[in-house]
Amino acid sequence: MAGTLLLVDDDRFFRELASDMLSRRGYRVIGAEDGPRALEQASLTRFDLVITDVMMPGMDGFALTAKLRERNPDQEVLLISARPDVKGSEMALRAGAADCLTKPVDEADLFLAVDRALQRVALRHERAQLRDENLEFARYQNLHRRCLEFLAYPDLEGLQERVTADLAAVCDAQSAALWLGDDRGELVLRAYRGLLDKQFLVERMKPEGPLAARLREAAPWLAWEERSPVLYVPLVAGGELVGLAQLSDPIGGEFQPEHVRQARVIGDFAAVGVKNGRRMLALQRLGLRDRDTAAYNLSYFTDYASKEIYKARRYGRTFSLLTFSIDNLPLVRVRLGTADAKKAVRGIIRALSRIIRDSDVIAKASDQEFYLLLPETDFFGALMFVRRAVAAVRDEADVQEVEAKLPLALVGGASTFPKDGEDFDELVHRCRRRMDERRASLQRRLLLDGLPFWEEVELLLGTPSSPKLPADERAEPSRRGKVSDVLFDELQAEIARELLRDPGARGLLYVGGPEIRADLPIASGLESAPPEMASRIYLLGRRMDLDSHPAVTPVFLEGDDRFTRHEFLFWLSEHASYALIQRRGKGATWGFHSSDTAVVDGLITKLQAEYDLQPY
Length: 616
Fold this sequence. Notes:
Layout: E1 4-8, H1 12-24, E2 28-32, H2 35-44, E3 49-53, H3 61-71, E4 76-81, H4 90-95, E5 99-102, H5 107-151, H6 156-170, E6 173-181, E7 187-194, E8 204-205, H7 210-217, E9 221-225, E10 228-237, E11 240-250, H8 257-286, H9 298-315, E12 319-326, H10 329-336, H11 338-355, E13 361-364, E14 369-375, H12 379-395, H13 397-403, E15 410-417, H14 424-439, H15 442-445, H16 453-461, E16 478-483, H17 487-501, E17 507-512, E18 515-517, H18 521-525, E19 536-541, E20 543-545, E21 552-556, H19 562-565, E22 566-573, E23 577-584, E24 589-594, H20 597-610
Parallel strand pairs: 1-2, 1-3, 3-4, 4-5, 17-19, 18-20, 19-21
Antiparallel strand pairs: 6-7, 6-11, 7-8, 9-10, 10-11, 12-14, 12-15, 13-14, 16-24, 17-22, 22-23, 23-24
C-alpha cells in the first residue's frame, strides 16, 4: 500500500536507515530533523502518516503530535522512542498517536505498524468519499425533483415565483429576480425576492448589444456589480430565449462553480416549464371563448383579473381595465337584423384582437359590452389604446359594411390600478362612469367625430351670436366666450410647472399659434427640464424663432394662414385634460375652453391627422 510519509528524528543515522527501509517497500518518505521543520513540511504536503521520535530537542514528539492534530484531527502519527515505558503510555494515547514503537525498531514491526495506519487512512478516505457521494446524490435528487416539478406546474404565475425561489435556494443566494420574454421580444420583470429593492430593478430590457451576445451562449455567467458578485442565468428552451434570472447576495460571499452548474440545470428545466405553462394557458383559453365572438367568457376574465391584481399588489405594478359598449346594438338588431348585429360584434372583436398584445385579454360581458385587461399599462396608455381601438374598429370591413346602413354608437371607458381602485368591481365602476361621461360629452352631442380639425375648431369657437353650447351635468364643463388676453400665456406657464413637478408622467401637449418663439412661456418654463421627461411637447406655427430645445419639438407649418388667426393649447395626460382655442380680435379675445376628455382627445387626434403628426 503506497503512501506519503514524514519521518521526524534528530538522529540522522536513524532517519536514513528507516527511510531506506520504507522506500524499498514503495513508500515516499520525506525527512525532517526536528518539530518546527516537520510542521513546515506538513504545511506544504499532505502526509498519510507521520513517524516521529519522542525525545527531540526543543519540540518533542508529543508536542509535535498535538500540533499536527490541531491542523488535521485525522492525522495518523506513529511514535518511536528509546524508552520502553513510552509504549502504550497515557501520554502517548492522549497525544493521539496510533501506535508507539521502541528503538531499536524491528523492521517487521515497523512495516506492520505503517500498514495498519495506512489501512485506517484508506478506510477514512472511503468513508468520506461515500459520504460525499451520498450528499451529492441527495443534492442531485433534490435538484431533479425541483426540475420535474417545473414541467408539471399548473399555474404560470406560480411557476415564476417557484423558479425564482428555487434558483435562490440551490445557489445560496439571498436575492433573485426573473425577467420573462414578452410578445415584443423584450424581457419584462415578472418576479423578485430577497434583499432587492424594486426601484433599482429594470422593468424592461431589450436583448441587444453585449447582453444579446451573452444570451446567445445560453450559459450562466458571473459579473461584478458595485463590488458584489451577480450570477445571470439565461432561460433557453429549444434555442428560444424564454427569460433571464439574476441572483445576488450569496450567503458565502461568492458563487461557487457548483452553484453555476446547478443554476444551469434549473434554468434549462425552468425554460421548458415556462414554455409549457404558456402553451397550457393558451389551451385553457381556447376552451373559455365565446363561440360567436371568440372573446373570453366573464368567469375566466374575472379570474385572470384577480391574478393580475395580486401581481400588481405584490410587485407594485399597474394595469388598466377597459370597457367597450355598442350602445345602439339593440337598434341595429331591430333595424338591420340579427345577422348584421352579429357581424358588427365580430368585426369589433376582430379589430381589437388585431391590436392587442399576447398578454392582453378580451372578454364578453354581455351582448353589447366587452372588457379588456391590459397588463403593465398606465392610464395614459389606456387612453391611447382607446383611441387606437376606435380607429381600428372603424377600419374593419364588417363594421364598415354595417355602418353604411346604420352608424354604430361605440363608447369606451378606462380605469387603472391602483389609481382608480384596488379591486375588480371598483375598476369596472370607474370605467362605466367614464363611459357615461363620454356619452354626455360635447363630442357626442355635437356629432364632432366626422368633422375635420379646422371645421371643428370653428364650430367650437362660434361667434358672439352663436347659441350656447349644450350642457349636461354628467359631462366635464365646456365654455365659449370672451377670455382673458393673458390666459393663453398663464396656462402655458402653469403646465410647465406641472410637468417639472412630475417629469415621469406621460402626456401630450400641443401649443399652436402664429410664431414658435423661445420666449413662449412653455418653452422658457421647460429650459431646465430633465432629458428623461416622459411627456411630449410640440409647438406649431408659421414662423419659427427657436433653436434646439431639450423638451420641446417645434413643428414648422409654413403657408397655413389659419395659424395667424388662431391660438390653441391641447393637453392630455394621466392626470388632466384641457383644451383652449382662441381667436384674437381688435376689441377682445374670443375663445373656447374645455376639460372634456373626449373633446380634447378628439381635437388632438384630428390635429395629428391634419398635419401628419406622429401619434404617441
